Amino acid sequence: MTTANSTPTDNAQQNSKYFRKALNDLTPNNIGQLKEVNKVLLGDELGQAVYDDALKVGDFAKLALFNDIIVGGIITAKSTVAEAKKNKVEIVSLAVLPAYQKLGLGTMLLDHIINTSETQLAGSEIHVRIPTKDTAAVSFFTKRGFAASGDPKSDTQMFVRTI
Asked: Is the residue at 157 inside a domain?
């Protein structure tokens, strides 16, 4: 039930159990929508090559839907570290539009990548680079088992989770 003095975000948080949240595959037909979400949140820092590669990684790139509307997504890059004989999954982009944050969509996206890595790439590591000043992102990944790696005084820091 909507009240006159509540904001749409407040209503979404209070009533999120009545809404449909889902993940969907990234395809050539919907990648443009993910580009727009990323443009809003990240600017134009991701190049076309990132999106071209995202179409090739299968389950390692997903869209977040809220009531069948694309509101976020995750893009990863997979590689093999030959000397360590490990697979590496790097999160290139994890974005959810501000009005849909705090509803569990980011967690759904990240959990999907963790579960897929466990199933398909046992013994792998998941890496994500986070601006050190983004305390919300640092907290989000730390709560999900990621540990800081590298120089904590730099502008960005790598966080790693071993699967």
From this structure: yes
Count of domains for the chain:
1
pLDDT value for 15: 55
Query: 3-state class of 126 per DSSP?
Result: strand
Question: What DSSP string runs through 56-90?
Answer: TSGGGEEEEEETTEEEEEEEEEEEEETTTTEEEEE
> CA-CA distances (angstroms) from residue 130 to 42, 150, 156?
13, 12, 5
CATH number of the domain to which 19 belongs? 3.40.630.30
pLDDT tens by residue, 124-160:
999 999 998 999 999 999 999 999 997 777 888 999 9
The verdict on residue 3 lying in a domain is no
The structure tokens listed for 160 are 């790693």
| 79 in a structural domain | yes
pLDDT over 90, % of the chain: 69
Residues in the chain: 163
